[in-house]
Amino acid sequence: MTRFLALTLLAAPLLAQNGFPWKNETLRYSIQWQSGLSLGDATLTAQKTDSGWNFEAAVGAGVPGFAIDDHYRSTSTPDLCSLQFTRDQSHAGRKSRERTTFDQKGGSAERVTLLPDGGAKPGQSTFSIPSCARDALTYLYYVRVELGQGRMPAAQNIFFGGAYLIRMDYTGPQSVTIAGKSETTDHVNVSVRGARANFNFEVLYARDSARTPVQILLPISTSKLTLELVR
């Protein structure tokens, strides 16, 4: 399957290197129910620094009575090994904030709860990490680098508070309509398994040089939540 993906990418037209991992990038997505009802929007940002990368994600969505306002920030080395990850969440007015700092050389990470307890114990813990550990946000960009090289990432643990085992499986090309225009993408199934969550979702990647995710499909009850790239 990996070999097939590599051949598929080589057969795709080479486009201008106009996004991650060559340049700074901002991607904007609309969030919709399967019916087409708009729920809000999301933004992903990558900024290159002298020491690596800064990544940010913002999600603003909701239905009457349940608003979501989430912000995630991550810093990484040039090789996309995480240095720090912060998540700042507000769900229906209930706020939480925590920071995870990665000591890649020491093989450990420290997780501190900043809100509501201000980092006081027991809101602080230290745990072991593998070589070149990645938080969930950094992992999103690491995947794109791997796809650009014709590889599917191996199953591995990512960190979003706790550790989650993530696995990606390439299923083949799939046509999708974005902003009224049809294009061929590469379809990937993703499974996430952890102590607090077990779920699956789908990602459709453009065949551009930056391997831009153009759609993300999240199953919600009997429907699907769609994040679609705004162009």
What does this molecule look like?
The protein is mainly beta and 231 residues long. It has one domain. The protein contains two helices and 15 strands. A 15-stranded mixed sheet has the order 8-7-6-5-4-3-2-1-15-14-13-12-11-10-9, covered by helices on one side. The protein is globular. The two termini are 31 Å apart.
What coarse outline follows from CA principal-axis ratios? globular
Oligomer: single chain
Nearest-integer average pLDDT: 89
Q: Please give the alpha-carbon distance between the first and last residues.
A: 31 Å
Stretches with pLDDT under 50, minimum 5 residues: 1-15
Percentage of residues in strands: over 45%
Structural class designation: mainly beta
Order of helices and strands: HEEEEEEEEEHEEEEEE
How many separate domains make up the residues? 1
Number of helices: 2
Largest sheet: 15 strands, mixed
Q: Strand arrangement, largest sheet?
A: 8-7-6-5-4-3-2-1-15-14-13-12-11-10-9
Total strand segments: 15
